[in-house]
Amino acid sequence: MLVLSRRRGEIILIGDPPRQVELVVLAIRGEVVRLGLRAPLDVPIARSEIWERIKEVSCAQLLPPSGPSSIPSPPGAADGSASA
Questions:
Q1: Is the model's pTM score more than 0.85?
Q2: Phi/psi class of residue 36: alpha, beta or left (left: φ > 0; alpha: ψ in -120 to 50)?
């Protein structure tokens, strides 16, 4: 991990143009740092807790619903006519 110190108004550049991301320290109030980000529209930017939630929801949509109702019955099993 790269650790940098910045003061209010100072900028950190990430990447190369045209996909460069600009991180600006807007304000520092106690232990809270307010950041501004400039990036191309196709670069996704999200807070980590939001990103984790997006991944959870995406995974949940890919998985079948849990429980016995999600397991298909063999043909004829619903009416008791399945033979062994």
A1: no
A2: beta
